[in-house]
Amino acid sequence: MNTLLFFIILLLSFAVFFIPKSLKYFYTLFLLTSGIILSSMWCFELVSNDKQILEIQLKLPFLQNGLVFIIDKLSAFFIIVVNITVFIGFLYARGYLQSYYQSKNALHFSIHYFSYLWLYLSMIMVVMIRDGLSFLIVWELMALSSFLLVIFDAEDRTIMKTGISYLIQMHVGMFFILISFLIVDKATGQMSFDALRLYFSSHSNFLLFILFFIGFGIKAGFIPLHTWLPEAHPAAPSHVSGVMSGVMIKMGIYGILRVLMSVQNDLLLIGLIILSVSLISGVLGVMMAIVQHDLKRLLAYHSIENIGIIGIGIGLGVIGLATKNIALSLLGFSGGLLHVLNHSLFKSLLFFNAGSVYTATHTRNIEHLGGLMKKMPYTAILFLIGSLAICGLPPFNGFISEYLIYVGMFKSLSAANLYQSIVILSSIVGLALIGGLAIFCFTKAFGIVFLGEPRSEKASMAKEVSRVMIFPQFITIAFIMLIGLASVFFVKPVFNIVSSAFNIPDTNIAAAASVNNLTQISILSGIFVITIIILLVYRHFHLKTKQIDVGPTWGCGYTAGTFKQQYTATSYAYNYNHLVKPLLQTKKIMVDIREDEIFPGKRTFVSHSDDIFKKLLIDKPIDWFSSLLKKIAVMQTGQIQHYILYAFVFMLLVFLLTYFNLI
Amino acid sequence: MIGFVLILIAAFFFPGIILRTKSITSGRKGPGILQPIKDIGVLVRKGSVFSKTSGIIFQIAPVVALSGTLCASLVIPFANQRALISFEGDFIFFSYLLAFGKFFTILAALDTGSSFGGMGANREAFFSMLVEPAFFILLATFAMFTGFTSFSDIFSHFFLTGDHYVLIYSIIGFYLFVQIAMIENSRLPVDDPKTHLELTMIHEVMILDNSGFDKAIIHLGSYLKFAIYGSLMYNVIVPAGWNIFLQTGLFLAVQVVFAIIIGLIESFRARNKMNLNPKFILTISAIAWIAFVVILILTNKLI
Question: CA-CA distance, B99 to A207, in Å (whole number)?
Answer without folding.
Answer: 42
